[in-house]
Amino acid sequence: MSDPELPEDKTLLIVDDDAPFLNRLGRAMTARGFEVTAVSSVAEAMAQARSAPPAFAVVDLRLDDGDGLDVVRTLYASRPDCRVVMLTGYGNIATAVAAVKSGAIDYLSKPADADDVVKALLASPDAKPEPPDNPMSADRVRWEHIQRVFELCDHNVSETARRLNMHRRTLQRILAKRAPR
């Protein structure tokens, strides 16, 4: 099931430290006609970007050994026409802007569907993205934001509550619950 719109150079680097996701996306992208190299660390990705920069890349924002933005910068420096899509489990505006400033062409929240990744990689630079088929609920967006601030405050409940302008006990109740859909 190869996409007819794939360019001649179909090399794709996938960087993610979640092994099951990395394998699943790698297989799906190979089935769609890409020549996939899958790595799980910043160090491996940087080496690959310098030795054989790909035409396309899908990079996770947070990796065990560093920041995916460093990989994006290296890819862009090695090959300015590389089309990079940033993936993250923590979707927020600040990291999306940082990803685009580093050279990424798009930013997708995990878990990203392979078809969405292909659309993002092959999208025309001046095309507007389609609205998502299954957008996050307002409750989920709120929960993601709270989790992000909590993480940025080094899991300090009092500091997070102060920054979010909410009562500490309210925050503790929210943190104790499961993520909404």
Automatic annotation (TrEMBL):
What SMART domains does UniProt report for this protein, alphabetically? REC
* Gene Ontology terms describing biological process: phosphorelay signal transduction system
Task: Write down the InterPro entries for this protein, in alphabetical order.
Answer: ActR_PrrA_rreg, Bact_response_regulator, CheY-like_superfamily, HTH_Fis, Sig_transdc_resp-reg_receiver
Is the Chloroplast keyword given for this protein? no
Q: Which Gene3D superfamilies match?
A: 3.40.50.2300, Homeodomain-like
Q: Which residues carry this modification: 4-aspartylphosphate?
A: 60
Keyword DNA-binding assigned: yes
Q: Name one GO molecular function term.
A: sequence-specific DNA binding
Segments forming a coiled coil: none
Ordered alphabetically, the record's keywords are: DNA-binding, Phosphoprotein, Transcription, Transcription regulation, Two-component regulatory system
Instruction: Pinpoint the Response regulatory domain residues.
Output: 11-125
Q: Which domain of life is it from?
A: Bacteria
Q: What is the protein's given name? A: ActR/PrrA/RegA family redox response regulator transcription factor
